[in-house]
Design a protein that fits this description.
The chain has helices spanning 18-22, 29-63, 98-104, 132-135, 140-146, 205-208, 234-259; strands at residues 5-9, 12-16, 78-81, 84-88, 106-116, 122-131, 150-151, 156-160, 167-177, 182-193, 196-198, 213-222. The chain has 260 residues and is an alpha+beta fold. It has two domains: 1-63, no CATH class; 68-259. The strands form two sheets. Strands 3, 4, 5, 6, 7, 8, 9, 10, 11 and 12 form a ten-stranded antiparallel beta sheet that branches. Strands 1-2 form a two-stranded antiparallel ribbon.
Length: 260
């Protein structure tokens, strides 16, 4: 191949080809070891800096006080919908034991009994707001068996209409021997995190590290032994009017907080 240029040294002419000019300098095995060692050290240093930054963010979020967006006791005591009108009992809200509040990790809570005026059906409603790692750990699947209750019917996940994205609730029935009969309680629950209602936060743990607050709704209703839960379920009818009302207040409070 023709040379690109020639050089003269001590009266000796040498030819430098294109391949020789473009070839990288030879690096010995020891040289490459230093290259890779330097690159590895840089990567480890960068990884350490990123991990430290993430840990500081997590500690900041973990230590942040979870302030309620609005007082849950302000939720309406009468809610109406196509399926009827639900009114809270006049004896007022039920106070949770301080130890239960601490274990549940809530910074605000409300417990009420609502009765449908035309049928007399009653549902007990618990709404919690607080730190996710505590609230998400206390699901009915954990707490009911711990108090001697057994799962006595199918587990059902159902979608409650809510704008463009429905709220997903889990429905379970637990029974506990009460002498000659077995008392059966239907339980519905869901968690709200980052605008999404679902029975769990699977796949959201990375986000929960930095956005640790959740809402929880849990309802309980006494059901008959052979009741068909999928037909005109009063609990579903209550949720259909209660969840949109709660969601509206949450989104209004979040919008107001973002503007401050």
């Amino acid at each position: 191949m023709a040379s690109l240029y020639t050089s003269e040294h001590d009266s000796h002419r040498s030819t430098v080809t294109a391949e020789e000019e473009l070839s990288p300098p030879e690096v010995t095995g020891t040289g490459w070891a230093w290259v890779w060692m330097t690159a590895a050290c840089l990567l480890l240093a960068a990884s350490g800096l990123i991990r430290g930054w993430q840990d500081r963010r997590f500690e900041t979020a973990k230590n942040r006080v979870i302030t309620p967006l609005f007082p849950l006791k302000e939720l309406p005591t009468m809610i109406s919908g196509p399926a009827g009108t639900w009114v809270a009992l006049k004896d007022g809200d039920i106070a949770l034991d301080p130890q239960i509040i601490r274990i549940a990790g809530s910074t605000d809570s409300v417990v009420r009994n609502y009765v449908e005026q035309s049928t007399g059906v009653m549902v007990t409603v618990l709404v919690l707001y607080g730190r996710a790692e505590a609230i998400t750990a206390h699901t009915p699947e954990v707490c009911y068996p711990a108090t001697g209750h057994d799962l006595v019917d199918d587990v059902i996940d159902l979608a409650v209409p809510l704008g463009t994205t429905p709220a997903v609730f889990r429905s379970l029935v637990y029974g506990k021997n009460g002498g000659t009969t077995t008392n059966r309680d239907e339980v519905f629950y869901s968690l709200r995190h980052e605008g999404r209602w679902a029975p769990g936060v699977d796949g959201n743990w990375r986000v929960l590290r930095y956005s640790p607050a959740v809402f929880k709704i849990q309802l309980q209703r006494r059901v008959a032994e052979h009741e068909q839960r999928h037909l005109n379920n009063p609990t579903e009818q209550f949720l259909a009017v209660f969840v949109p009302e709660l969601e509206r207040r949450i989104t209004d409070a979040e919008k107001k907080a973002s503007q401050e």
